[in-house]
Amino acid sequence: MKFVQELRTYETSAGAKVYQIPMEAFPGLLTFAYLILHQDLCVLIDTGSGYGESNQQLVEGLQAVNKPGSSQPLKFEDLTHVLITHGHIDHFGGLLEVTALSDALVGVHELDRRNITNYEERRGFILRRLETYLIEAGVESERRDYILGLYRYMKQLFQSVPVDFVYSDINMQLGEFEFLHVPGHCAGHVVIRLHDLLFCGDHVLTDITPHQSPEELTHWTGLGHYLQSLDRLEEWAIGIRLTLCGHKREIKDLTSRINAIKKMHMQRLETVMEFFESPNTVNALTDQLFGSADGYDALLAIEEAGAHVEYLFQRGMLTIENYEQMENSIEPYPLYYKRH
Ligand SMILES: [Zn+2]
Ligand SMILES: [Zn+2]
């Protein structure tokens, strides 16, 4: 069996069996789905991307587990529910295949439902916002076309599928699974708790800080929401023994990981304030923070920088030096931020 790494198993304090299924969502991006067997529920949390070998690795992960009380391997048909942590394609892209082969009920948070059910429309909508954002960030036209081209390419990877319920329909609870909305990294991100285990998608990760994007591209994202969600999770997750993530290793000490992520963002905010001692663009800041990123990383880098600028601008700590042009024209143009 050719796993990108071996299948790991866990057990909750009340005896639910958990299987961590590894997939290569995109080249070099290791992503996990989780299969959980508890009472009469057979739940899959996230599905991988559907890209490349990802679906095949998901199928093999299920097949490595036997149906409860049987020596037959599990199949998509045996799933009762698919729970999506958030509307990023490396977590829901596999739905296209899963929903074709099973009657499992698919759930997602209401703020990310359209990412799955209105995929094409949302892509087009965000593309327009992204173009304006890149112009205002000071990205020159050739590089802008390159970044927008990468975004357009993502459009071909999925097509809309229906979902069966949103988590508020079930009062944020399914059997003994409990949900908490943690917007920031994604608008409708949830973390899911079962007994003493937490499934946290991309909200908290080891080794890397989860990607941030400015709220001007999608409502309910942005660094402000994200930092608030870290605080909410810290309070909510008391008694959690182990946190299982969408990427990277599991987290044993969630509180100290949350504090390290908060500290890193505070330091970055200070760096951003220092950078804007003299007026400059988000694009120049991105080069300073991340160097010359290529491929999809180029988009991620300029979103990350912009999320920090937006946070400070919204709080009046940065101002736009050339704001007066805005009053004369609605056409976007490069904005020069400076420290207030
Ligand atoms: Zn994500
Ligand atoms: Zn992810």
Widest β-sheet, arrangement of strands: 1-2-3-4-5-6-7
Would you list the SSEs in sequence order as H and E?
A: EEEEHEHHEHHHEEEEEHEHHHEE
Reading off the top of the CATH hierarchy, the class of the domain at 8-113 and 159-265 is best stated as: Alpha Beta
Structural class: alpha/beta
- Architecture of the domain at 8-113 and 159-265, CATH level 2? 4-Layer Sandwich
The proportion of residues in beta strands is: 15-25%
By DSSP (H or I, 4+ residues per run), the number of helices equals: 10
Q: Measured on Cα atoms, how large is the radius of gyration? A: 21 Å
Q: Would you identify the CATH H-level superfamily of the domain at 8-113 and 159-265?
A: Ribonuclease Z/Hydroxyacylglutathione hydrolase-like
Q: How far is the N terminus from the C terminus?
A: 58 Å
Integer average pLDDT: 96
The set of bound ligands, ions and cofactors reads: zinc ion
The biggest beta sheet is recorded as:
7 strands, mixed
As a percent range, the share of helical residues equals 25-40%
Runs with pLDDT <50, length 5+?
none
Report the principal-axis shape: globular
- Within the CATH hierarchy, at the fold level, what is the topology of the domain at 8-113 and 159-265? Metallo-beta-lactamase, Chain A
What is the number of strand segments? 14
